[in-house]
Design a protein that fits this description.
The complex is a heterodimer of chains A (about 550) and B (about 110).
Chain A: H1 3-7, H2 10-23, H3 31-57, E1 66-69, E2 80-83, H4 85-105, H5 116-132, H6 136-154, H7 160-191, H8 196-202, H9 208-228, H10 238-244, H11 247-271, H12 284-304, H13 308-328, H14 332-360, H15 371-375, H16 388-391, H17 397-414, H18 420-434, H19 440-470, H20 482-500, H21 502-516, H22 520-528, H23 535-542
Antiparallel strand pairs in A: 1-2
Chain B: H1 2-20, H2 25-46, H3 71-102
Classes of the chains: A mainly alpha (about 550), B mainly alpha (about 110).
């Protein structure tokens, strides 16, 4: 067991232990301490994830695939944690978004309820676990962990709107969990195993009369993931839940739809790969159609939205649709572009959710400042002596930062140059054009829809920007704390780095996509992982009594 | 026995779906509970139904499914019951909060005409 494979357990253990410690520190007196622990632990998680990413990337080609045998049980029997290129990328993404969210929450939102910090860490535990596990039932457990934490976080701050949205959100997710269990049980009934690698290994051997049952089980399981990935028409829960919750939680929730996408990406490419015999590429058309419909739904919703939080929520839906359509076309180039887009879109959507909370603060009712009349020079002013009427009021730093961040965010979300959103969209379009020879139908629909979604996002965000930043009267410079500004700048810097270092990131996602579409190395690595000889075996050798 | 169990799962699942679609929060909770019973029974039945066969491999007997029952669905169903129980309890709390905030037990907070 190498150092890297021992490190795999850290993204799961760290939030778990920190959550336990945070629970032991109740009371208002230790608020500062709790805040510091939460931010530091989240940051530590990011550092570990970055280390894992670098470690995985060192292998070149398919990259290293590290397997952690929990309790030293070998793969088909025990639960394994698997770290590969895809999970490492998503762990880093979780680290980035959660660090910004944790930082932002310290400016005030974390004080709106008692158990914000432990719930936050449990959410991270669920997210990291879902990305790392190599076992279907364990995936269910981590899904439930992250959902249970998200129920609490979604209600954070309370209020009728949150509780109503939360009630619907919980009911939908409980139903999805039931579907998850049914699909899981059918798959177990057919395959006799729940290890993802083992199922992939044996899928081609399934008897012909069992194949329909297998497909039914996989489809039921996929519906559960499609609900979580917010695919139309299963995404009605998303809008109220995301628009009513507090800003740092909404930013964290951007990751949750990505879990559904991850599960589909992982399982679909693993189980229904080219090696799967008669089941190869089962359900691809459904993913493509669902993705395109979601994309169209999100684009229309974007155009129809006036309020910023609705724009942000619809941009999450557009992202979900784009990702699913790109996955459904089963082209390596398109999947690589989709992974790059996933990173860029997640960061920018999280940033938009944080920003809109700050922007909303400028909307102060009843505080109408006579700014225009004050500043406009009139005949009594001697402009040589007193230049204030001419120059105007000093531009507050917070407005400058907010405005610039909003412009950058709008460029990122709409996919306009020069930031990473544009690079992601350009690579998606290029890859879609390249698939035209094989699957012309999908590409012909995907390209105009992508462009249209970008256009609609631009229109909506420009409209919102004019409304919030340029409109006259009734607005004040928002009060912004250093943590809030820092969180936004952090995400902005991450997007900036993604733009500058787009080439290595794109190389990484291309290698990831190529490896995921030919998943034999994954299966071999998981099933080939050897358990270490335990103390019982060495005791036998010494001839000690049992 | 398979037939009886299938009917039971069907009745539980059907009633659960009907109740979940009702407009009262208490009915939704009951529906979700019935659905989780149906799902739990379904998982249990996946391991093929047998009577008087423990999920143990006894020495001297061949270790195939003709001689012992599959312990896996039983452990799965145990976990599913625990998780389902916890999430239902959590949903009940949200239900009470919604009742307190809106003054009605309608899922959207609407007061009936």
């Amino acid at each position: 067991m190498t150092a890297l494979s021992s490190l795999i357990i850290v993204p799961i253990l760290l939030p778990l232990l920190v959550a336990a410690v945070l629970l032991l520190l109740p009371g208002a007196g230790q608020r500062q301490l709790r805040a510091r622990i939460n931010v530091c632990a989240t940051l530590a998680g990011l550092v570990v994830a970055a280390g894992l990413l670098v470690g995985v990337d060192n292998g070149g080609g398919a990259g290293r695939i590290e397997v952690y045998l929990a309790s030293n049980w070998q793969a088909p029997f025990g639960i394994v944690l698997v770290l590969d290129r895809l999970s490492a990328l998503l762990l880093v993404l979780v680290g980035l978004v959660s660090t910004a969210s944790a930082l932002y929450a310290e400016a005030g939102w974390s004080r709106a309820g008692t158990y914000f910090h432990p719930l936050f860490q449990m959410q991270l535990l669920g997210l990291n676990g879902a990305f790392l596990t190599g076992d279907l039932f364990n995936l269910f457990v981590f899904f439930e962990v992250l959902l249970a934490a998200s129920y609490g976080l979604q209600l954070h701050g309370s209020g009728w709107l949150r509780v109503r949205a939360g009630m619907h959100y919980i009911a939908v997710n409980l139903l999805a969990s039931s579907l998850f269990l049914v699909g899981l049980a059918v798959l177990y009934g057919v395959m006799g195993t729940l290890s993802m690698a083992d199922i992939a290994d044996k899928l081609a051997l399934v008897a012909e009369r069992d194949r329909a049952l297998l497909h039914a089980g996989a489809a039921i399981l996929a519906v559960a993931f499609l609900i979580k990935a917010a695919i139309w028409p299963l995404n009605a829960w998303l809008l109220p839940a995301y628009t009513s919750t507090s800003a740092p939680v909404a930013a964290l929730f951007v990751l949750m739809t990505k879990v559904g996408f991850y599960a589909l990406f992982r399982l679909w490419t693993l189980l229904f790969s080219d090696d799967a015999g008669a089941s190869a590429h089962f359900g691809g058309e459904v993913l493509l159609t669902g993705g395109l419909l979601t994309l169209a739904f999100g684009a229309i919703g974007l155009l129809a939205s006036i309020r910023l939080e609705r724009i942000a929520a619809f941009s999450v839906i557009v992202t979900a649709g784009t990702l699913m359509a790109a996955l459904g076309m089963k082209a390596t180039g398109l999947s690589a572009a989709a992974l790059f887009y996933l990173v860029s879109a997640t960061l920018s959507a999280a940033m938009l959710f944080l920003l809109l909370d700050l922007v909303r603060r400028t909307r102060v009712e009843g505080l109408v400042r006579p700014r225009e009349t004050e500043i406009l020079p009139d005949e009594d002013d001697n402009l040589d002596d007193d230049q204030v009427p001419l120059i105007g009021r000093a531009f507050p730093m917070s407005v400058a930062l907010l405005g610039l961040a909003f412009v950058a965010c709008a460029l990122l979300v709409a996919g306009l140059p020069p930031l990473s959103g544009f690079l992601a969209k350009l690579s998606l379009l290029t890859a879609a054009v390249r698939t035209m020879d094989d699957a012309p139908g999908g590409a012909w629909l995907l390209i105009p829809l992508l462009l249209l979604a970008g256009l609609f996002a631009t229109i909506s965000l420009v409209r919102a920007g004019i409304h919030h930043f340029w409109a006259k009267g009734g607005r004040s410079a928002p009060q912004m704390k250093a943590e809030e500004g820092g969180a936004v700048v952090f995400l902005l810097a991450a997007c900036g780095l993604l733009t500058v270092f787009a080439e290595p990131v794109f190389r990484y996602t291309t290698a990831t996509a190529a490896y995921l579409h030919a998943p034999r190395p994954y299966v071999d690595a998981v099933l080939g992982a050897q358990a270490r000889p335990g103390p019982a075996a060495s005791a036998e050798i010494k001839g000690a009594p049992p | 026995m398979e037939f009886l169990l299938a009917i039971a799962i069907g009745v539980l699942g059907g009633s659960g779906v009907w109740l979940v679609l009702r407009p009262r929060t208490f009915q939704v909770v009951m529906g979700l509970a019935l659905l989780s019973y149906a799902v739990n029974l379904f998982i249990f039945s996946i391991g093929s139904l047998v009577i008087n066969r423990p999920p143990l491999v006894v020495p001297g007997q061949p270790a195939d499914l003709a001689h012992y029952t599959d312990p896996m669905p039983q452990s799965l169903v145990l976990t599913a019951i625990v998780i389902g129980f916890a999430t239902t309890a959590l949903f009940l709390v949200v239900l009470l909060a919604a009742r307190g905030l809106s003054g009605t037990d309608h899922v959207d907070g609407d007061v009936d005409p």
